[in-house]
Amino acid sequence: MSHDLQNDLEVVGAGDDYGFEFDDDAGGEGFQTSGGASRSRMDKQMDATSALEFRQGKDMQGIPWERLNYTRDQYRQIRLKQYKNYESLARPRDGPEKECQRVERRDSFYDFQSNTRHVKPTIVHFQLRNLLWATSKHDVYVMQNYSVMHWSSLLQSGKEVLNVAGQVAPTQTVRGARPLSRVQISTMAVKDNLLVAGGFQGEFICKHVDQPGVAFCTNLTGNKKSITNAVEIYESPNGGPTRVMAANNDCVVRTFDMEKYSLLTEFSFPWSVNNMSVSPDGKLLAVLGDSSDFIIADSQSGKEIASLRGHKDYSFASAWHPDGRVVATGNQDRTCRLWDVRNPSEAFAVLEGRIGAVRGLKFSPDGRFLAASEPADFVHVYDVAAGYARAQEIDLFGEIAGVSFSPDDGAEALFVGVADRTYGSLLEFRRQRQHGYLDCYF
């Protein structure tokens, strides 16, 4: 389902030959040139875009439109017409559009700050997009091939923190731990000092980013077809050790204690679980999967509290507002729905995407914004205080690997990972402030 830009945008030589070819065996290094342009010369032209360069007219992603067969506007219209949204369930073509609320998408809450290709996200499953996590306004973790990379926007440098290309062995000798080999990372989460990753064949990996090696790893299902679809790090509702929850295609949600790396609970559901998220107080669990309905359950017992209906296809994303009363869900029917768990009979707002499913959802830590990402090209930042009727539309090109607000700093930064073979990169945006003009001095 990938829509690779290099297949669409043909580079036209003007003076020098800048025909790009991606080296699939280069370990994510990026470009090779088919003509006389040197690697260092291409790095200078293609690797980064600053806020100042963007204001002066350079493309945000560094795409050289002046050398291509299309203008940016022309190519946008092509993408809007030709992009095919993946659907699991057949439905009328005029389905949810009728109930979607009107949204004014001309606001600007975040300003473009920088773009780097020194870290380039990759995707191994076209439906799963939780592959980018920020732990501060300067620190972001992103999945790249068989590695998890840490990028420091302050130092402008990247560092590998987890490599799963070979054998991965646990350092903790606890029950259930077992070595793994050559893991394709399907999902991940990072919080504070803990990194958790799920694998394409049911793998589960826990690592402390400031310590060598992997603390705990195992295969959750024993079934190589039961991909780990989602992982979440959260605090126990009774003040106990940090917990991690994992959802798999075997229809089971599992919870682990991160102090002893012990399995605490296993909850079974009637369909493959594509996503789950825990409420801020740790008491409620939203469970979504291969069903048009989704479930609110008790996080301690797994008992169903409510079944919520309204979506028309399978769901792959959810997020809780920090107040714990609202949960957002993203679906292949191209909508995000907002639910008040105190009155879950129907969604109180329905937000429509532009070209595809809503595959990523994140509320800002202060609850002011909701970021909703599509599979490609669009990230929508909604103003919660305006009833989701105002939004900023971040318009880019390429498959989106993930979005993340920085925590605990007023959501100062917003990061977007683009997983295109040629134009793959990490985009950084900064929250608008009255002193935003000062970035020109840095």
Automatic annotation (TrEMBL):
SMART domains: WD40 (SM00320)
This protein's UniProt keywords: Repeat, WD repeat
Source taxon at top rank: Eukaryota
WD repeat feature ranges: 308-349
Repeat listed as a keyword: yes
Start and end residues of each stretch annotated as Disordered: 23-45
InterPro entries in the cross-refs: WD40/YVTN_repeat-like_dom_sf (IPR015943), WD40_repeat_CS (IPR019775), WD40_repeat_dom_sf (IPR036322), WD40_rpt (IPR001680)
Name of the molecule in the record: Uncharacterized protein
Organism: Lolium multiflorum
